[in-house]
């Protein structure tokens, strides 16, 4: 699976930690979209759009495309990501939420708040998100309703 990850300047430390944790997995290709050293402060809407563009361009042709966004609280990134047609982003502060986001809502972007969880908790949340499949069944019709709400015509 491919994981596109970015943060604003408030999420840099967590992004570096999550990338290191993901690099220990054999089933993940990581694309770090920054910010990088020369970028300085960045605005979270810009990084959210960048990650979402990658997920959307590649996600429908190749299942297993996910985004991870990190800012101070996670709220700004979550709002920005969900403005993108076809994105279902959720803010998770615990493992159970990450699992349910995937199982029930087929979320394709995980949002984390660097100020809300320890780094080890974030690693657990990320692994739960990536390891949980969409539950199908009764959830398919609900996710389809979400697609219609955002006007997205693409399907997985």
Number of helices: 6
Question: Approximately how much helix is present in the residues?
Answer: 40-55%
**Taking Cα atoms only, what radius of gyration do you get, to the nearest Å?**
14 Å
The N- and C-terminal alpha carbons lie at a distance of 15 Å
Order of helices and strands: EHEHEHEHEHH
Task: Tally the structural domains.
Answer: 1
How many beta-strand segments?
5
CATH superfamily annotation? Sugar-phosphate isomerase, RpiB/LacA/LacB
Q: Give the class-level CATH name.
A: Alpha Beta
Strand order of the largest sheet: 2-1-3-5-4
Uncertain regions spanning at least 5 consecutive residues: none
- What is the CATH architecture term? 3-Layer(aba) Sandwich
Q: Largest sheet at a glance?
A: 5 strands, parallel
The proportion of residues in beta strands is 15-25%
Based on CA inertia axes, which overall geometry fits?
globular
What structural class do you assign from the helix and strand content?
alpha/beta
